[in-house]
Description:
mainly alpha; 3 helices; 56 residues
Amino acid sequence: MLGVGGARRHLGRTALRGGARSGRVGGGTDPVAQKRELLRRLQERRTEEARTEESS
């Protein structure tokens, strides 16, 4: 486990555990938010398809 002590000095405990989502460590988009966005787009696509079928 070389190098762990140096990283701990520069990063806070929450960042090491992935708490800082907007920070360097553990960053990226929230998986729950990604799923919510995916479901929203899927629902929009389905309602749009239903509208086009009704008008045809």
